[in-house]
Amino acid sequence: MEFTPIIGLEVHVQLLTKSKLFCGCPNLFNPDNPNVQTCPVCIGLPGSLPVMNQEALRLSQKTAMALNLNLANFTKWDRKQYYYPDLPKAYQISQFDLPFSYDGWVEVTLPSSGETTKVRLIRAHLEEDAGKNMHDESGRGGDSKVDLNRTGTPLLEIVSEPDIRCAEEARVFLEELRLLLRYIEVSDCNMQEGSMRCDANVNLHVHEDGEKIPTPIVEVKNLNSFRGVEAAIEYEIKRQVKAWETDRKRIGDVPKETRGWDADRGQTFAQRGKEDAADYRYFPDPDLVPVTTTDEQLEAIRATLCVFPADRRKSYVNDLGLSEYDASVIVDQGREYADYFDEVTSVCGDGKQAANWLTQDVQRELNDRKIEIAEFSISAAVLGSVLQKIVKGDITIKSGREVFAELLKQSDDGTTVSAESVDAIIADKGLGKEQDTGKIDAAIQAVIDNERNAKAVEDVRGGKQQAVGPLIGQVMRELKGADAGSVRQMIIDKLTS
Amino acid sequence: MDITGSTTGQLLDAMQDGTVSAVDVTQAYLDEISAHGETIGAFLSVNSEGSLAQAAEVDRKRSAGEALGKLAGLPVAVKDNICTKGLSTTCASRMLENFVPPYDAHVTTQLQSADAVIIGKANLDEFAMGSSTENSALKVTRNPWNTDHAPGGSSGGSAAAVGARLAPLGIGSDTGGSIRQPASFCGVVGMKPTYGRVSRYGLVAFASSLDQIGPFATDVTGTARLLESIAGYDARDSTSVDQPVPNYSATVDQPLEGLRVGVVSEFFGDGIDSDVDSSVRAAIDVYRSLGAEVSEVSLPHTKYAVATYYLIACSEASSNLARYDGVHYGRRAEQFENMIDMYAASRAEGFGPEVKRRIMLGVFALSEGYSDQYYLKALKVRRLIRNDFDTALENVDVLAGPTCPTPAFKIGELVDDPLQMYLSDICTISANLAGIPGVSVPAGFSSNALPIGLQLLAGPFEEEKLLRAARMFERETDWHTKRPTFS
Ligand SMILES: [Zn+2]
Which B residues, 370 through 399, put their C-beta within 8 Å of a C-beta on chain A? Predict the structure, then answer.
């Protein structure tokens, strides 16, 4: 059986505003103290009225720009009506026919194949989050409770076209989305805390006798981890293949099915279907006025954007000569990490050198200490000044490592290390490369004159260049710091001329 | 001094010169409420202790020489769909019978900062849905001019309270005539300001795009004084308009030179009571006699106003009232099988028949497949009705006509005929659809001694012009000085 999986994602992302979307309550994750971040507006008391949070719209527009979405100059608010205990007004303020943004795309690269694809986006719109129902899980049938702390949190809904063709692509799309949203600092995209949530629409196009047959669409709800998204889609594809083989149901033969994901059992499961299709009776919210944004206002927002991850990866490869792999490793660590890398590069003037140090020496320390780059005690400026000395040939890489270790030691002892600390360490340890050729010359002569080296000296004179190695080592030890290449050349010159 | 027979101006003067104290004034109205309150049924709750405390505070401020607000010591009857912190706000519904808001409406705060005294919460049609106050689930309110008759609605409690001199001032809300029509029925002045003039924050919503809070008083000057105290921008209401509030009471006595009055021919159509017709035409003659230029104008889409209004109002109401589901507050049914059943049972028990009728109409009008031909079409017609007013007001300053085609009908007369009841609003609802201000002033009596109201309408934010025009008529007549006798 030949088939193509067809996958579209709906992603909900909470925005990092100080206050909620339509009231002044703080926008904070606070599950331990239910119903403290509430006011008459967000709990929908009679007579209360919403007022739009401008910052939420600004962050949404910023996000839309990063997602290559078109921005509308005119947008409005609609009520989406349904009954549920976590929805105190019995309607959600959302956007129906005139979302603030539409038609965009995200570029993703699959690690398995290296293939790059564009996942198109239908729209992104802003809406208020609902509260959270908490049911008694003891099995004793206790009352369900409702926490409205989350009610009214600004929520961005991003809807993709069904452009995704495998579970891996779905996961990578989500990871790229999270990276991008974190780069532009609009959301922390924490799937465990629910600040990023995902629903997946999955079906198959079965290829049979030159015909393309779409199977019924299944929506898998509330996927709350990247692994979960990938595993649920993989499971769902396999399940749908089996379903096709047994019942041969096509799209339209049955209503769209909603399924949940049981992460423990690694299975999707049928959720109680709605008896008839939901009619949300959308209509424009008369309590809110339509919102217009001028092109000038949009340009002002655009000016606040940083370089996006995809562009950064490209620039690291094209402008700094990094490998695709290293570029991704650095960019995918997040904005602070890439910013750190950028600063080290600009101070030392060598992106490859910076990349090597960051992905090896620095990363090892971060791993050992279980810290983020922001908490690392050696600032980018200081590391950059160490690398600059290597690049300029003032110290060897090996000496650089010694300086690095000493810097860590000093900062662990409570010293704030600076570029001056770097100079002091080099001076103290005598790690500066010997530039005095007379001194180098004398050291070389001493090694040549040493009886122990008579054999090696003879070999070099006889043309066996590999015999020069031990001699270089002795000279270097003597000098503490020198350029190995020039020492080598000087020994050969001395013995063969 | 005859406190309850005085106008707000007389009361303010008397309190200022020390003839009476604020406590005297409040006590006099409380005594009146004790004596006649149950005959009229204007109040759902009387704030006896609270109002006396507020009055005492006014007296204290006055004797301490502290600055006093414009309404210092004046009792106000507040419609019971306006939130008052710590005072129950029932919307005359079983659903909210025990609801005590934890916050004040903007209007409530404005009244307090003007040093007014909130004397009680006035009856209304349940959730302001009705034209007679008969839809109150909690109380019957009677017309002070004839207790067999309805006070009008939905702000019938506030209008009856002022008409019966149980309070000198009242606050109502007007969604389709709910201030002007009961003002007309009860023989008092009532005004619906421009949409956005008074913040709706804390007004329990019926139809958000039409609801507007406004004042009642026994005379135009009192109306002006109350309006200037409650109007103004409020950031908590996105539809509130940021425009300066004129000092209406300072200019209200200035007649308008060269006033042009447009008489709306559609408001004198079939079904108009002959007493209403002759009283209103006589009122227009008063303007002629004052030198105003009077002409006939037409609002051609008036015939669609009632249908348009009910589609829009009910659609919005169906959404606004969805929150009363028994989950978070309000009435929850005792007996239910599951969650869906809890919603259904709570709403079935909590809402009265008119509210249910309108919710069902609104749900239908917004349903997928129907909203194009009902709700969205109604929005288009609403635009045409607005255009009618824009055109008519190009050549005249104010529009004039009856507030209601008939005087107050009998209690029970129209309850089984909702369509006839809806037609009672025919002259008032267009102003809500257009968002413009309107005022009803006493303009005579029917042969059976029931008050008749003259309605004046003007362009957006022309309340000052409207009040001055109304006062021009009032100073030439003595209808507003008449008081009902009841026992
Ligand atoms: Zn809130």
Answer: 371, 375
Cis peptide leading into B154, omega within 30 of 0? yes
CA A336 to ligand 1 center in whole angstroms: 33
Q: The domain spanning residue B102 has which CATH number?
A: 3.90.1300.10
Domain boundary (A393, A415, A431) is at A431
Residue in chain A lying closest to B84 (CA): A47
Q: With an 8 Å Cβ cutoff, are B322 and A81 in contact?
A: yes
Ligand 1 mean position to A403 CA, how many Å? 54
- Is B371 within 8 Å of A90 when comparing Cβ atoms? no
pLDDT tens over chain A, length 497 residues: 899 999 999 999 999 999 999 999 999 999 999 999 999 999 999 999 999 999 999 999 999 999 999 999 999 999 999 999 999 999 999 999 999 999 999 999 998 998 999 999 999 999 999 999 988 877 777 888 999 999 999 999 999 999 999 999 999 999 999 999 999 999 999 999 999 999 999 999 999 999 999 999 999 998 999 999 999 999 999 999 999 999 999 999 988 899 999 999 999 999 876 545 689 999 999 999 999 999 999 999 999 999 999 999 999 999 999 999 999 999 999 999 999 999 999 999 999 999 999 999 999 999 999 999 999 999 999 999 999 999 988 888 888 999 999 999 999 999 999 989 998 998 888 777 766 667 788 888 888 888 888 788 888 888 787 788 888 888 877 776 677 777 888 888 878 76
Please tell me the distance from the alpha carbon of residue B409 to that of residue A248, in angstroms, as a whole number: 68
* CATH number of the domain enclosing A483: 1.10.10
In angstroms, what is the span from residue A28 Cα to ligand 1's centroid? Answer: 12
Task: For chain B, give the longest Cα–Cα distance.
Answer: 71
Asked whether residue A449 falls in the same domain as residue A425, the answer is no
Tokens, residue A386? 């160490």
Is residue B486 exposed (0-12), middle (13-18) or buried (19+ Cβ within 10 Å)?
middle
Cα-based angle B124, A83, A287 (whole degrees, multiple of 5): 55
Q: Say whether A85 and B339 touch across the interface (CB within 8 A).
A: yes
User: In DSSP terms, which residues pair with A102 in a beta bridge?
Assistant: A70, A123
Q: Tell me phi and psi for residue A134, to 5 degrees.
A: -125, 120
| Subunit contact A49:B82, Cβ cutoff 8 A | no
Residue of A nearest to B370 (CA): A281
> Is residue A49 located within the same domain as residue A111?
yes
| Interatomic CA distance for residues B238 and B309, integer angstroms | 22
Q: Do the chains contact at B101 and A47, CB–CB below 8 Å?
A: yes
Whole-Å CA distances, B1 to A444, B28, B93, B225, B375: 122, 11, 39, 22, 55
Q: Which residues of A touch B329 (CB under 8 A)?
A: 45
Q: What residues of chain A have any CB closer than 8 angstroms to a CB in chain B?
A: 40, 43-52, 79, 81, 83, 85, 88-91, 146, 279, 281-283, 286-289
SS3 (DSSP) at B280? helix
Residues A124, A27 share a domain? yes
Say how many domains are in chain B. 1
Whether A284 and A221 map to the same domain: the answer is: yes
- Residues of A within 8 A of B368 (CB-CB) are 279, 281
Residue of B nearest to A82 (CA): B322
Q: List CB contacts (< 8 A) between B99 and chain A.
A: 46
Is there a single domain that holds both residue A406 and residue A480? Answer: no
The model carries a pTM of 0.91
Pairwise CA distance, residues B483 & B487, whole Å: 13
- Are A209 and A330 members of one domain? no
Task: Dig out the tokens for A49 from the structure.
Answer: 């009225």
The token pair at A247 is: 């019942």
Name the residues of B annotated as catalytic. 79, 154, 178
Number of domains in chain A: 3
**Same domain for A258 and A341?**
no
Shared domain check, A260 and A338? no
